[in-house]
Structure to design on (513 residues):
């Protein structure tokens, strides 16, 4: 920096005045010795000269001072000191030059990383405005030094499942869209018939004769695991695109699992033990027929384990036919065994609502939660002879379990036919109608089992009993206790497996109950 020159200028001014006074004094001495003048005139002359010299000196000093101030002002320059994190970096001509540097650096990193949000690491910058005589700030060197100190990082969002980092995406909106996409992978599209049919295919299918309409309503969808997101400063290369993270979340890992069947095992029991859907077992072991497995069989239980489990709860509503009951009118004029149709029966309709709970599309549980009669059936009237036949049914069935709850419906499930309905409730099992015990013993798959012949074309089957209370050939009436609910045969928990057959053809029991 240059220094203020005002003192030198003033010193030079005073020296000039002194020299002027000395010259005037020398001239005065010389005049007095050579010229004689009037005393009064000489006196006036001597008085005027010092005054004139003094005034001249003052004017000269004023001129010198004014000139020095203007000179200094004309050569004073403004500049800016730049500090980073409290340390002086250097001086620049103006603060705008630093702003332009930062803007350029931001543009460069944004251009180099177009798909992520980049931030500069400038540190804490402060500026002090200064002024000095003939200031010469080293702007270029300061800007170069500051540029070397500036770093950068990408802004990302870490996505974790149960505390485990799965991947990093560019922002929260991307993370949210991935989770919605995962939920949508397993959530059926409400009001879309195709999606409703797909849902039914995973659980069971109804024939055209028993079901007029099937609709699915999604009640809830949630991810079982704890999923968290958090903003983080990362390297640009650490950020993955949405498709990459989505596949990492839903693909998961596959660990081959084999299991050897032991005494007392059943498909449902094994599924519960390994916390998997029975559907997995059926898909991996297509050789299983009618739930028949035996000790020593080796089952493939391999299942995909995604990073997240999407649990959906759906209400499946179907409309099924109600088979008409048959009213028997006795006619003493007709011989025993003869009959005549007085009126044909007409089917009614009822609505059944099932709650299906699935995990990643696999059915985990199924429950009948509501049924409502939409249209009553019209009973058929048949006139028969008066001869009484012991054990003949009425054709109208009652529930074989009191306090009943349906846990599995009738129809094809996972590609296999479920021949009846599974019921839980009071453990006493009752005859659904009058009849004769046609079988009381053990059957493959059904364990302890009772079959009642109702002598009117109908037969009912009661499976998985823990105790049988009747014998073959015994006549029973509707509501008689015939056994105790159990878990024998190929069962997956205490319940009653109930079937209805008409003239040898398997029927949906819910048409008659």
């Amino acid at each position: 920096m240059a220094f203020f020159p005002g003192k030198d200028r003033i010193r030079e001014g005073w020296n000039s005045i002194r020299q002027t006074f000395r010259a005037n004094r020398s001239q005065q001495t010389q005049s007095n010795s050579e010229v004689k003048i009037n005393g009064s005139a000489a006196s006036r002359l001597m008085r005027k000269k010092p005054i004139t010299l003094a005034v001249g000196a003052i004017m000269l000093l004023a001129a010198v001072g004014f000139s020095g101030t203007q000179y200094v002002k004309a050569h004073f320059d403004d500049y800016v000191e730049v500090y980073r994190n409290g340390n002086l970096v250097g001086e620049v001509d103006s603060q705008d030059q630093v702003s332009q540097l930062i803007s350029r650096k931001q543009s460069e990193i944004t251009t180099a990383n177009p798909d992520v949000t980049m931030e500069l690491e400038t540190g804490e910058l402060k500026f002090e405005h200064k002024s000095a005589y003939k200031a010469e700030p080293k702007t270029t060197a300061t800007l170069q030094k500051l540029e070397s100190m500036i770093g950068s990082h990408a802004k990302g969002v870490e996505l974790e499942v149960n505390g485990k980092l799965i991947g990093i995406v560019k922002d929260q909106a991307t993370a949210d869209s991935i989770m919605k996409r995962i939920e949508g992978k397993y959530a059926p599209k409400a009001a879309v018939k195709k999606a409703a049919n797909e849902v039914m295919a995973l659980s069971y299918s109804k024939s055209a004769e028993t079901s007029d309409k099937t609709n699915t309503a999604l009640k809830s969808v949630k991810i079982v695991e704890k999923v968290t997101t958090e903003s983080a400063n990362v390297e640009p290369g650490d950020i993955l695109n949405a498709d990459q993270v989505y596949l990492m979340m839903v693909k998961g890992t596959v660990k081959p699992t084999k299991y050897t069947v032991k005494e007392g095992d059943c498909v449902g029991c094994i599924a519960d033990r390994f916390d998997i859907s029975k559907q997995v077992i059926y898909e991996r072991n297509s050789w299983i027929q009618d739930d028949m497995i035996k000790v020593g069989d080796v089952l493939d239980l391999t299942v995909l384990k995604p990073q997240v489990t999407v649990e959906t709860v759906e209400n499946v509503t179907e409309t099924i036919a109600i088979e008409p009951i048959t009213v028997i009118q006795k006619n003493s004029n007709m011989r025993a065994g003869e009959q005549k149709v007085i009126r044909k029966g007409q089917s009614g309709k009822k609505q059944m609502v099932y709650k299906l709970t699935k995990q990643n599309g696999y059915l985990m549980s199924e429950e009948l939660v509501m049924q409502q009669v939409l249209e009553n059936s019209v009973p058929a009237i048949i006139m028969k002879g008066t001869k009484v036949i012991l054990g003949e049914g009425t054709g109208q069935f009652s529930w074989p379990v009191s306090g009943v709850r349906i846990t599995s419906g009738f129809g094809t499930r996972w590609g296999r036919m479920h021949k009846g309905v599974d019921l839980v409730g009071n453990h006493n099992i009752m005859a659904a109608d009058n009849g004769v015990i046609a079988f009381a013993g053990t059957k493959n798959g059904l364990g302890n089992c009772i079959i009642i012949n109702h002598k009117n074309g109908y037969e009912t089957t009661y499976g998985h009993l823990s105790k049988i209370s009747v014998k073959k050939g015994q006549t029973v009436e509707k509501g008689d206790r015939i056994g105790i609910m159990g878990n024998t045969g190929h069962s997956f928990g205490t319940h009653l497996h109930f079937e209805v057959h008409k003239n040898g053809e398997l029927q949906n029991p819910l048409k008659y109950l």
About this structure: The first strand starts at residue 76 and ends at 84. Residues 77-149 form one domain. The chain has a mean pLDDT of 81.
